Amino acid sequence: LFQMPRIWLDYCQFMVSQRKITRSRRTFDRALRALPITQHSRIWPLYLTFARNLPLPETAIRVYRRYLKLSPENAEEYIDYLRSVGRLDEAAVRLGAVVNDENFVSKEGKSNYQLWHELCDLISQNPDKVTSLNVGAIIRGGLTRFTDQLGKLWCSLADYYIRSGHFEKVFDSYAQFEESMIAAKMETTSEMGNDEDDDIDLELRLARFEQLITRRPLLLNSVLLRQNPHNVHEWHKRVKLYEGNPRQIINTYTEAVQTVDPVKATGKPHSLWVAFARFYEDNDQLDDARTIFEKATKVHYKQVDDLAAVWCEYGEMELRYENYDQALRILRKATAIPSRKAEYFDASEPVQNRVYKSLKVWSMLADLEESLGTFQSTKAVYDRIIDLRIATPQIIINYAMFLEEHSYFEESFKAYERGIALFRWPNVYDIWNTYLTKFIDRYGGKKLERARDLFEQALDGCPAKFAKTIYLLYAKLEEEFGLARHAMAVYERATQAVEAEERHYMFNIYIKRAAEIYGVTHTRSIYQKAIEVLPDEHARDMCLRFADLESKLGEIDRARAIYSYCSQMCDPRMTANFWQTWKEFEIRHGNEDTIREMLRIKRSVQATYNTQVNFMSSQMLKATSSATGTGESESCSTSLGTCGRPGMDRAEVQLEQKSVPTAVFGGLKDE
């Protein structure tokens, strides 16, 4: 009885009642395949009810798409379902297809315009969800199609642009609407004749359109500020728009500082207060500017830096008017210890209780004290900065330089010592570098042991990145004021302590200074150590220089031994310069036997490097063959000659023949 719809309906209802989703769906599909198409209308209502009640909409969407192939006139039901499950993009596409179908008849009795209006509302109110349609083109098409409904359609287009964040297009749409209304009015007036009331109406529309164009930047700014009233940048732009209108500027600044919440602000909220005070300052209303700054210092900013910037700007304003004492009083007030101390990064405390630890304010106060205050007041400020532990290496150096300028040399050295106690590597590098340089300039060799202790302290824990400068300074001290052997010991330590890429440079200095102090013969041990520890690239250079030194000293055998040692790290294909140098050496100082020995070594080294290359090539070939040979082995028998090792050997021989140049011994024709 597979063609009896009643039995299929009972069976499907029975499966649905058991909540067996997949089995129920398959049962419905079997029923549709078994029954003739004239009886499908009895199955589909139950199938659609089952699909709509499923937890995930994907199954229902696929079922509906099949259903609409049979009954496209029920598209509205599918569109309503899509809107209910949030699939607005497909709903808009389906609704657009319905609107464009001139033969579609709504089962709900809706006209084509009503369907169009639903489409406009759907796409204009959900610009982020409807992405498959050109919304602007659809609504503008409606403007030409439904000329009696221009107002609603323009509003839909504006609503779409607003929700999309395209505020400039909102204005453009409004301007086009006004322009089209003026054009229509002018056309009507020309056809109907001149009328005084029509002329007045036209003049009003033209005036409104001109005002709209003039106010465009201000309107756009108003929209952005309504969207985010805490946008500091937009408030500054609004002030510029009122340039030349002082009353409006004051009103705008007043509204801005009252509206912007420093915690929610986008941008720097203190800049509004500073700009407000600067406006009064530019108009020579200094008392009003001071009032603004005083109010600004009481605002609960989110960051301490905002309040510190206000205090600094306040002091700079007084400096511009040469009120130096007032500027000092302002910054001393800003750095005064509050009644309730708080940590700088404690966000639970207001910034007014934390600004006393702001380095920005203290730095400006220190500069003013140096320029305007006394020695004792300036020294007290720097000491206070160090006690609060907010000093930077530059502050320490400035403090020491200030003391040195006033001939307090030991005090300046104590300032360096305090700074060194505050910082670790690498931040302490600049302090140590300046301290050691100043100490040597001041005392020279008079306090040599103290200077040595300072250098040893500096080098204790010094990273390799910063060791070179300090070691060179240390060695220079020993050369000028100490002992030569101490200087050599410092150079020796430096070659081990610096970074690997700087060792070659340090060995060069070491060799040069040793030759100048002790003579060239003393450099032999240095050359030997350099050749041992340096990488091949630099070791080859050291070998050539060492061999040249020995040949100049007449030690031909020693030079030949050095060349022989260096040859083991010189591939003839890559380091032709070395082999040419050795060849010229043997031509000058050797004989037939030594040249033959040199060529034998060259062949040996060449063979060694060729073996390494061939071994690597063999390994690569094996890896490639193992990847491709698995599939081939399935079709091969046990014949080793075809798929086994002998074939691999032939391939390796061919690769070796290709990897060794034909003229590999071309450079040995002299033999």
TrEMBL record:
Spans of repeat TPR: 308-341
Entry superkingdom: Eukaryota
Subcellular location: Nucleus
SUPFAM superfamilies found in the cross-reference section: TPR-like (SSF48452)
Keywords for the protein's UniProt record, in alphabetical order: mRNA processing, mRNA splicing, Nucleus, Repeat, Spliceosome, TPR repeat
Start and end residues of each Pre-mRNA-splicing factor Syf1/CRNKL1-like C-terminal HAT-repeats domain: 262-633
InterPro entries documented for this protein: HAT (IPR003107), HAT_Syf1-like_N (IPR055433), HAT_Syf1_central (IPR056350), HAT_Syf1_CNRKL1_C (IPR055430), Syf1-like (IPR045075), TPR-like_helical_dom_sf (IPR011990), TPR_rpt (IPR019734)
GO cellular component: post-mRNA release spliceosomal complex; Prp19 complex; U2-type catalytic step 2 spliceosome
Coarse class of the protein's main subcellular location: nucleus
Domain Pre-mRNA-splicing factor Syf1-like N-terminal HAT-repeats, chain residue ranges per copy: 3-73
Domain Pre-mRNA-splicing factor SYF1 central HAT repeats, first and last residues per copy: 167-260
GO biological processes: generation of catalytic spliceosome for first transesterification step
Family under the similarity heading: Belongs to the crooked-neck family.
Name the record gives this protein: Pre-mRNA-splicing factor SYF1
Source organism of the structure: Electrophorus electricus (Electric eel)
